[in-house]
Amino acid sequence: RGGTFVVAPPARHLTMSDVGGAREARADLADVVAFLRSPEKFEAMGARCPKGVLLVGPPGTGKTLLARAVAGEAGVPVIIAGGSDFTEMYVGVGASRVRALARRARESAPCIIFIDEFEALGGRRGRPNRSGEEENTLNALLVEMDGMAGNEGVVWMAATNRDDMLDPAVRRPGRFDRVVEVPLPTLADRLEILRIHAARAPLSPNVDLDVIARLTPGYSGAELANLLNEAALVAVHAGASMITGADIEQARDKILLGRIRAGVVIT
Ligand code: ATP
């Protein structure tokens, strides 16, 4: 991505109803939406503006999707970055990218900054495997966050599945002081996620999503979306115009086989 950050324009079609499960996360993020819609109301009431939200959960559970949905509902742009965009071996580059990101956000406010794989940027300082350069970059981030009063209309969001690796300083008040858990979906959540994705696919009426939800314990939202996508490919190969239950089962077997080969599942 280099040193520049892309500001994705408001995607108003994308809302919280595109996110299945993650009920607590959706509820927790409702006032971030309200704040971004009218920061002046928060200010007039003397209410503290949400500044930093840390989304914590396993890969593929919809953390990026949630950030984009918050932006979509609020009708604001989102700047998406990855923690590794800031890990540069050259002196000062990581820190200057952090400053460029903050500058870009101020220009685009109200907006959201979303940093994926945040542990690459916000990792604990003073650990033997952390370079001084990485620490400078993290310090630059803390300085930028502290330099925003909150009423600029910039909300920082970051996602990680390794919150145990984060430096405690990133959680201090005025920084990422809100933690939102985004766990793997439950059975009911999986059904909700399957319904969202199935609505966009030509499913045969014989497909019982409830059964599919029961057959997919441990699947993340991304894996469920992938399952339906693989099933669509099976249907296309068969020259069919609809996805059947058998296509989904075949796709599931294929995914399972891939996992066994990759050593993820031990039989
Ligand atoms: P990572 O930690 O690996 O970056 P993530 O938690 O940010 O993953 P997303 O990138 O948001 O996960 O998920 C990838 C895709 O999977 C989404 O664009 C969406 O299509 C689907 N998906 C994931 N979770 C959900 C969900 N809860 N509801 C609906 N779709 C989901």
Identify the notable features of this structure and list them briefly.
binds adenosine-5'-triphosphate; 267 residues; ATP-dependent zinc metalloprotease FtsH; single chain
Describe this entry's structure for a reader.
By secondary structure, the protein is an alpha/beta fold. The chain has eleven helices and six strands. A six-stranded mixed sheet has the order 1-3-4-5-2-6. Helix 2 (30-37) packs parallel to helix 4 and helix 10 crosses helix 11 (245-261). The two termini are 40 Å apart. The model has no long low-confidence stretch (mean pLDDT 91). Residues 19-22, 59-65, 116, 159, 161, 193, 196, 221-222, 225 line the site of adenosine-5'-triphosphate.
In brief:
The protein is an alpha/beta fold. The chain has eleven helices and six strands.
Main sheet makeup: 6 strands, mixed
- The N- to C-terminal Cα distance equals 40 Å
Mean pLDDT across residues: 91
Using only C-alpha atoms, the radius of gyration works out to 21 Å
Low-confidence stretches: none
- Oligomeric composition of the shown chains: single chain
**Strand line-up across the major sheet:** 1-3-4-5-2-6
List bound small molecules: adenosine-5'-triphosphate
Helices and strands, in order, run as EHHHEHEHEHHEEHHHH
Total count of helical runs of at least 4 residues: 11
- What percent of the residues sit in helical stretches (DSSP H or I)? 40-55%
Count every beta strand, where a strand is a DSSP E run of 2 or more residues.
6
What general outline do the C-alpha atoms trace?
A: globular
SS-based structural class?
Answer: alpha/beta
Strand residues, percent: 5-15%
